[in-house]
Structure formats: structure tokens, C-alpha cells
Design a protein that fits this description.
heterodimer; A: two-stranded antiparallel sheet; 2 strands; 61% helix; B: alpha+beta; Cytochrome Bc1 Complex, Chain D, domain 2; 3-stranded antiparallel β-sheet; 37% helix; 10% strand
Chain lengths: 430, 338
């Protein structure tokens, strides 16, 4: 897997016997027990583990729900209601899965912002980052199709609006968009046929995500983790073994996250959803405001900010796909925003932009919202296309510490014992 | 040094841009068009918040209101009679509910029997609580084209919109999340049931705008009765939307024209009395509306008591575990300098 050698020593005869035949315990030990992790990781680095937990929880709760769910236009809504009312612990498992989707996105957005802040996409982690964008894309598709399954009003109209986006391709090649849309629907309108195929794909995609996650972790363990200084691990003192150090921190992060998770599941399971989805789907009645779930709102705002339908669709897809090019858009030689004064400001303005777009996405498409959606759509793309390339060229980074060890021990007053010399480790300048 | 200067200049620019955005977004939002939903006041419920639970006596009174008033038109199709016995709900005695099911006016269609015929029979505990109409078409035919919706999920299917400025939307959300408030549905039902008033009066001003006035009007000027007002754009006069035939004015209903008449009133239901013959709660419209809204909140979320009782215990467990893990982590990390 990585350059790191496992220190696994089988203690039992069975362990030794097995190790000679299939060294899976050796592999796990090397990757998840004595794997070297930077000694300066903060709590923002606990979200990788949290996300793995989220995926596992969604798969397990989803498998149970699928045992009671009926993917048909006639039965879907009633079966979800039946799960909540009458299935043993259905009152717990159904909101756990629905809220779990929201929590998954909370965690993944923090994870992505952390990567952007500390430059975790920069060489040699480009493939790691791109795999992450693929995971995000697969998560979005899974969440979108999952939201269709309860077959309430917002499910139905959300599917109708989003699948209709493909018909914008008609303006490029007459009939192409319509053909794609009808192929997605399995007919001439959104019906139970559409619901049934969405259910099939909703069950499939999480396993695709799981595969991508394995590749993502593999790529992580080849390159090694980034850290708040953005410096590479250069000496043994720069790192600590994953167990118990990083594991202990991950456990605190995970349980703190679970407090928030449990708060929503058990105290306010409806807060993150839409009241309209408690009304069964009705193709003849359009809800007054069709809005996606909160985690899609920024992209929905971008979609509606562009006056042309095709342009809006292109901008919306581009807003996610642009993440693929971030490793090459950023021209800075320094990874971490900690040492990049201009980039730090641009980053926080970008965070504000995303929140503002999210708020605007929840509003009707009228003034003054449209103007501000256009303003922040511009700001969104400007971050990637202007700030990332230009700032790297004009900015003078602050003095980098010579090593991770120096950044840690220098901060706590130089440390008592002799500081292991960071030696030849020059500030990262290539 | 120059770097620092540039940084602060950029910081100022960034803050200014954010402030500008916030300032513009916090100006009053565009006047609400005819379809926009009005503001819904919060009632305060026994079941909201972190440790809220349903008040059993209130659920029982609420069912009484449903049975005596609402069930004339609305079903409760996703509930069975047995649910009225279950813990966490009104918890009526089982025998009483058996009797209730038996005497429920809307009979169950069962069959086919051995002769191949469908037949009507009395409801059992396991049967759904049916409304008077067999299907939507029958309801519309009897109700002048209107469709009284099933009430099983109505409390979760309604949620008032936020009405403040963009600037305070964030703090408002944070406050709701921290207090665990998600009782917007019952708030709305209460506001709807108590929202039947006279159609508001308006006088037309010189510039074509309609101005709301008291019922008697300012004297001299002609008064118009408008269920809602469509603001005139580009200097055109405002449009007065009159109440349509067969509709009622309701202050809480989006658009203010509702097909349901003001059926609930003071004393609509006789509430249980104590041993001295004094009613324990007043049989006012407001109380009826609160009780039936609470009952419908239970109908839509019958496991709330259990969920919230589990909730604070689970949260306490997670909180203690997090603290213990934190100290464990501190101890492990104390082995090295960090």
C-alpha cells in the first residue's frame, strides 16, 4: 500500500499461520495501528473517520428500511409512514437515515473546506482529492434519488424539476434533451416507473461510494496525511503512530459529532426536511415553492442565477466539477492557508459565499434575491478561477516553520528536552 | 510590512463586501403577493423542546374535538382505533375504544364474502379511522368542489415560513435548533382554527394604493372589502381581491380564502368536568384549537414521547462519553509534547 512497513508481530501460533498465508492483519496493523500520522493534526482532521461512520450507518439503516419499503407510486408514501408508525424501532431508524443524509453532507462539506484551507489537494495528493470529488458527486446522486423515495410532494416535484434540466440540451440538438429525459423517466412523465429505478440506483450507489472510499483511503495512505503546517513528514519526530494518538482524537471528534446527530434525530427529526414531503405526491398540484434539501441549495441558487436554462444547468454542474481542477488552479508553492495571508481572506469569503448562496437558494426566484444570487455565483467561480491562480503568484507567504516538530514544540515554548533537530528540512520551497 | 498593510486593506475590503451584502439582504423583503403565507404566532406546547411530552388530558380533549367537529368532513386514515389505546397517546381505555370503533358512523367495507359480495361492517380496534367520504371525488361532490384533506399527517405537513429580515434568519435558526423547536405545524393549525375574522376593509388612496382601515372606515371615503391585495407594479393601482362565493376569510391561510367554514367556536365541545361540576379547562375557541392541534400533532408523530424520552438519555450518554474520551485523549497525548 504505502512505503510504510508494518510492524505487525503475530502473537499466537494461529496468527502466525494465518499471516504466512493471507497477511490481512499485517496490512490492517500497518495502515491503521502504527501508521505514522503528523503529530500536529487538529480536530478538522477527524472528519474522515466521521464520514466513514456516516457511510456505514446509512448503509446499515438503509438495508433495514429497504426490508419494509415499497418502491411503487401507490405504496411508497404509505410504506414510509408505516415504517415510522408500526415497524419496530421504525420511529428511530427512518429519521436516522433521513437526518443521516444531512449529517453526511455537514461532515463532507467541513471535510472539503478543511482540504481547501490547508491545501490538501496539492501535490502529491491530486488523485486523493479527485477521488474525493468523485465521492461527493456519487453522494449527491445518491441523496437526490433517496429523497425521491418517500414520494411526497417535494420528492415528486424535486425529481420533476431536476430531471427536466436535461431537456435544456434540446437547445443544442433538437430532441436530444427530451430523449435523455424520457430515458431517465422510463416514460413520458415522472411516474412510479421512475421511482422504481431510482430505488434500484439508490441501493447500488452507496456500494460504489464504499469502493471509492477504499481508493480514497489507499491514496491517502500512499501520500500520507497533510497537516495544519502543510509540511511533509521529514523525520520520525514529526509523526506519531495512528494508534493510540490519532485514534483517541478521532473518537472524541466522532462522539462530539454524534451529539449533534442525535439531537436532530431524536429531538427535531423534521427540522432539516420539508413539511411538503408529508403530503403524498400529486402530479396535479404544484407546491408554491419547490426547493431541494439544504445541502443542494447553493447549487440550486447557481442554477437559477443564470438567465438561460442551458447556461444555468452548465453553471450548476460546473460548480461541482470545477473542484476537479483545483490542484492545478492553485499556483501557490505553499500548501497551508496558515502561511498565506491573502488566500486566507479569499477562503473565508468563499465560505461566506457558499452560505449566502445556500440562503438565496431557499428563496423564490425574484428580486432582490436574483441579483444577489448572480453576485455570489460570480464570487463562487471567481474564487476558483481568479483567486486561486492569481493569489499564488502575487502573495508573499509567511515564514514557514522548518518542520512539523518545530511548529509544535516552538509554540509550546521550545520544549523541555532537547528538540530533535529538524536538520536539513528547509521551508517548503520547490 | 507592506504585506501586513495589504492584508489589512484586503480584510477591510472583505468585511465591507460582506457588510454590504448583509445590509442589502436585511432590507425588508418584497411585499408579499396574494399567495404568500402570513406570519404565524407561536403558541407554546407541552411537547416542544428537548424534554417535551404530550399532555394526555389534552390529547383526550383534542380527540373529542376531532370526533365532534372535524370528523364530519375529515378522515384520520393512517391511524387505527388501536392507536388511541397505545402508550404515548390519548390512552383511552381499551373497552371504551372498542365501543367507539363499533359506533363509528363511517363503516368499513369488507369482503368479498362467500357469495362474492362486498359488505359493510362495524370497525374493530385494528381498523382505520375513516372519514365520511369513500374517495376524493365523493368528497368534492359533497363539498362544493373542495377536498377536506386527511388529517393523519397534517401537523407535519404544514410549517410556517420565516418572516424576519435576512440578517436575523441565521440567529433565528440557531435559536430554534438549540431549543429543539419544531412545532410550527401545530402553531399553524391553531392559528388557522382561530383565524376566522371579518374580511378586512381598505380605502383607496390618491396614488392608487389600498390602505387597510378599521371595520367602520374613515368616513366619507368608499370602503372596499378585500380578502387580499395584489400590489400594483410600475405605478399601477393595487388590485383588490374580493372574497369568492362560498369561501371564508382566514387570517392564517395562505391567500386568506379558505373553503372550510368557521366551524369551531366557543363551547363547540363539552369538556369533562370535575366532581363539583366545574369544567377543568374552559371550552373556548382558543382552547379547542390548542387541544385539537395537539391531538393532530400526536396523530402525525405518535412516537414523540418515546423518542424524546430516549432522546435526552441518549444525549446525556453521548455527552458523558465525549467528555471521558476527551480526558482519555488528553492523557494519551500527555506522553508526548504537543
Amino acid at each position: 500500500m504505502s512505503a510504510h512497513e508494518s510492524n505487525y508481530e503475530p502473537t499466537s501460533r494461529l496468527g502466525k499461520w494465518f499471516d504466512e498465508r493471507l497477511p490481512v492483519a499485517r496490512l490492517m496493523h500497518g495502515q491503521f495501528v502504527d501508521f505514522p500520522t503528523p503529530r500536529n493534526l487538529n480536530y478538522a482532521w477527524t472528519f474522515g473517520g466521521i464520514l466513514t461512520f456516516c457511510l456505514a450507518l446509512q448503509i446499515v439503516s438503509g438495508i433495514v428500511l429497504a426490508m419494509h419499503y415499497q418502491p411503487s407510486a401507490e405504496g411508497a408514501f404509505a410504506s414510509v409512514d408505516h415504517i415510522r408508525r408500526d415497524v419496530n424501532f421504525g420511529w428511530l431508524i427512518q429519521p436516522m437515515h433521513a437526518v443521516g443524509a444531512s449529517m453526511f453532507f455537514v461532515a463532507v462539506y467541513i471535510h472539503i473546506f478543511r482540504g481547501l484551507y490547508y491545501g490538501s489537494y496539492k501535490a502529491p495528493r491530486e488523485v486523493l482529492w479527485i477521488l474525493g470529488v468523485f465521492i461527493l458527486f456519487a453522494m449527491m446522486a445518491t441523496a437526490f434519488m433517496g429523497y425521491a423515495l418517500p414520494w411526497g410532494q417535494m420528492s415528486f416535484w424535486g425529481v420533476t424539476v431536476i430531471t427536466n434540466l436535461f431537456s435544456a440540451l434540446d437547445s443544442i440538438w433538437a430532441g436530444l434533451g427530451t430523449a435523455i429525459t424520457e430515458w431517465l423517466w422510463g416514460g413520458y412523465a415522472v411516474t412510479g416507473v421512475t421511482l422504481n429505478r431510482f430505488f434500484s440506483l439508490h441501493y447500488l450507489l452507496p456500494f460504489v461510494i464504499a469502493g471509492l472510499v477504499i481508493l480514497h483511503i489507499w491514496a491517502l495512505h500512499v501520500a500520507g496525511q497533510n497537516n495544519p503546517t502543510g509540511l511533509d513528514i521529514k523525520s520520525k519526530s514529526d509523526s506519531v503512530p495512528m494508534y493510540p494518538y490519532a485514534v483517541a482524537k478521532d473518537a472524541v471528534g466522532l462522539f462530539a459529532f454524534l451529539i449533534v446527530f442525535a439531537w436532530f434525530v431524536l429531538i427535531m427529526p423534521d427540522y432539516l426536511g420539508h413539511a411538503d414531503n408529508f403530503t403524498p405526491a400529486n402530479p396535479l398540484v404544484t407546491p408554491p415553492h419547490i426547493v431541494p434539501e439544504w445541502y443542494f441549495l447553493p447549487f440550486y441558487a447557481i442554477l437559477r442565477a443564470i438567465p438561460s436554462k442551458l447556461g444555468g444547468v452548465i453553471a450548476m454542474f460546473a460548480s461541482v466539477l470545477i473542484l476537479l481542477f483545483v490542484p492545478w488552479l492553485d499556483t501557490s508553492r505553499v500548501r497551508s492557508a496558515k502561511y498565506r495571508p491573502y488566500y486566507k481572506i479569499a477562503f473565508w469569503f468563499f465560505v461566506f459565499t457558499c452560505v449566502a448562496l445556500g440562503w438565496l437558494g431557499s428563496k423564490p426566484a425574484e428580486q432582490p434575491y436574483v441579483f444577489w444570487a448572480q453576485f455570489f455565483t460570480f464570487a463562487y467561480f471567481a474564487f476558483f478561477l481568479i483567486a486561486l491562480p492569481v493569489l499564488g503568484l502575487i502573495e508573499t507567504p509567511k515564514q514557514l516553520p522548518r518542520s512539523i516538530t518545530e511548529s509544535v514544540l516552538g509554540k509550546s515554548g521550545g520544549g523541555g528536552a532537547a528538540v530533535p533537530a529538524g536538520a536539513a528540512a528547509a521551508p517548503e520551497k520547490r | 510590512m507592506t504585506t501586513r498593510k495589504h492584508t489589512s486593506a484586503l480584510t477591510v475590503a472583505g468585511i465591507a463586501a460582506a457588510g454590504l451584502a448583509a445590509a442589502v439582504m436585511s432590507v425588508p423583503l418584497p411585499a408579499h403577493a396574494a399567495g404568500a403565507a402570513p406570519e404565524i404566532p407561536r403558541v407554546g406546547w407541552s411537547f416542544d423542546g428537548l424534554s417535551g411530552q404530550f399532555d394526555r388530558a389534552q390529547l383526550q380533549r383534542g380527540f373529542q374535538v376531532y370526533q365532534n367537529v372535524c370528523s364530519a368532513c375529515h378522515g384520520l386514515n393512517r391511524l387505527s382505533f388501536r392507536n388511541l389505546v397505545q402508550p404515548g397517546g390519548p390512552e383511552f381505555p381499551e373497552e371504551a375504544v372498542k365501543e367507539l370503533a363499533k359506533s363509528w358512523p363511517n363503516k368499513i367495507i369488507d369482503g368479498p364474502n362467500e357469495a362474492g359480495e362486498m359488505f359493510e361492517r362495524d370497525a374493530l380496534l385494528s381498523d382505520r379511522i375513516l372519514g365520511p367520504y369513500r374517495n376524493e371525488q365523493a368528497a368534492r361532490a359533497a363539498q362544493n368542489g373542495a377536498y377536506p384533506p386527511d388529517l393523519s399527517l397534517i401537523s407535519r405537513a404544514r410549517n410556517p415560513e420565516y418572516h424576519g429580515s435576512a440578517f436575523s434568519h441565521g440567529p433565528h435558526m440557531v435559536k430554534d435548533i438549540l431549543t429543539g423547536y419544531q412545532a410550527g405545524g401545530p402553531d399553524y393549525l391553531h392559528a388557522l382554527l382561530t383565524g376566522y375574522t371579518d374580511v378586512p376593509s381598505y380605502v383607496r388612496e390618491e396614488n392608487g394604493h389600498l390602505k387597510r382601515v378599521g371595520a367602520e372606515g374613515p368616513g366619507g371615503k368608499p370602503v372596499e372589502q378585500c380578502a387580499s391585495v395584489n400590489p400594483g407594479e410600475d405605478g399601477k393601482p393595487d388590485e383588490c381581491v374580493a372574497l369568492a362565493e362560498g369561501m371564508s376569510y382566514n387570517a392564517a391561510f395562505p391567500g386568506h380564502q379558505i373553503a372550510m367554514p368557521a366551524i369551531l367556536a366557543d363551547g363547540a365541545v363539552e369538556y369533562p368536568k370535575d366532581e363539583n361540576g366545574v369544567a377543568m379547562v374552559p371550552a373556548t375557541l382558543d382552547q379547542h384549537a390548542r387541544d385539537v392541534a395537539a391531538f393532530l400533532a400526536w396523530a402525525a408523530d405518535p412516537h414523540l414521547n418515546q423518542r424524546k424520552a430516549t432522546g435526552w438519555q441518549a444525549l446525556l450518554f453521548l455527552l458523558i462519553t465525549t467528555v471521558l474520551l476527551y480526558f482519555g485523549k488528553k492523557r494519551i497525548w500527555s506522553r508526548i509534547e504537543h
